[in-house]
Design brief:
GO molecular function: uroporphyrinogen-III synthase activity
Domain Tetrapyrrole biosynthesis uroporphyrinogen III synthase: 25-235
Order of helices and strands: EHEEHEHEHEHEEEHEHH
Pfam families: HEM4
Distance between the termini: 13 Å
Strand content: 15-25%
Organism: Sodaliphilus pleomorphus
Strand order of the largest sheet: 3-8-7-4-5-6
Protein name: Uroporphyrinogen-III synthase
Largest sheet: 6 strands, mixed
Helix content: 25-40%
């Protein structure tokens, strides 16, 4: 069966130069960007149940822009004025620059991993181990900084947002030939929305070990994933469409 319509479970790219748009023009497919999951922030009442006072912390660890948004949102709701002395430790330069949305960017208080990974951030945290760290996370987080547990770091995880199913409406068509997932939660949401889902000829793609594990554990067939030769999901989809095109000839 020819792939005609692909659901990519991510928000639509903001750049017109996205490789996904190139796939549409090259292979004549329609790509729909629709997350199976969405993030919603905890209310201040829900947050208080964790018995965490954000004013007790002198530094914050951010591993996602969503964490930045919800930290400052909750601070406002809790009527806590984040002091200028607060230090921020970010998983990447992108997250660090995103802080400019809420605070003046100063190198003396904003630190980030040069390589965008935990092994680049932990040495910075260890250099400032006298700080008391708050680590905003989601309710289904997988720690990106497991070394925090083994190092002598004074920190506390704080659940500030949750991942929930982005339900399909009763009249919303589900006529896709390929489904692409990036999180285990997205796979679970598919089966929550469609408990009688049967894969059949629908191609399923997944990126990341946890996502792939969830696809297989759910009894689904994995058809598309990234490889060293196709490191991005767009490239992996392109390779699949190319092989399908050759098979039809």
């Amino acid at each position: 069966m020819k792939i005609k319509k692909i659901l990519v479970s991510q928000p639509k790219p903001s750049s017109e130069k996205s490789p996904y748009f190139d796939l549409e023009s090259k292979y004549g497919v329609e790509i729909v960007f629709r997350p199976f999951i969405k993030v919603e922030g905890l209310s201040s009442k829900e947050f208080r149940q964790q018995k965490i006072s954000i004013g007790d912390y002198t530094a914050v660890i951010f591993t996602a822009r969503t964490a930045v948004d919800n930290y400052f949102r909750l601070a406002k709701e809790l009527r806590y004025d984040v002091p200028d002395t607060m230090k921020y430790f970010c998983i990447s330069e992108t997250v660090a620059h995103y802080l400019q949305k809420y605070t003046v960017y100063r190198k003396r208080k904003i630190f980030y991993s040069e390589n965008g990974h935990a092994d680049g951030l932990m040495p910075l945290i260890e250099k400032h181990k006298k700080e008391v760290f708050l680590y905003p996370v989601s309710d289904v987080h997988e720690s990106k900084l497991p070394e925090l547990e083994t190092k002598d770091i004074n920190f506390r995880r704080a659940v500030m947002y949750r991942t929930v199913s982005n339900d399909f409406g009763p009249d919303e068509p589900f006529d896709y030939n390929m489904l692409i997932f990036f999180t285990p939660s997205g796979v679970k949401s598919l089966l929550s929305n469609f408990p009688d889902f049967e894969q059949g000829d629908i191609a399923i793609g997944g990126m990341g070990n946890k996502t792939i594990e969830e696809i297989k554990a759910s009894g689904l067939r994995l058809d598309v994933t990234t490889t060293p030769s196709t490191p991005s999901m767009a490239a992996a989809i392109g390779k699949y469409l190319e092989s399908e095109s050759k098979a039809k000839k």
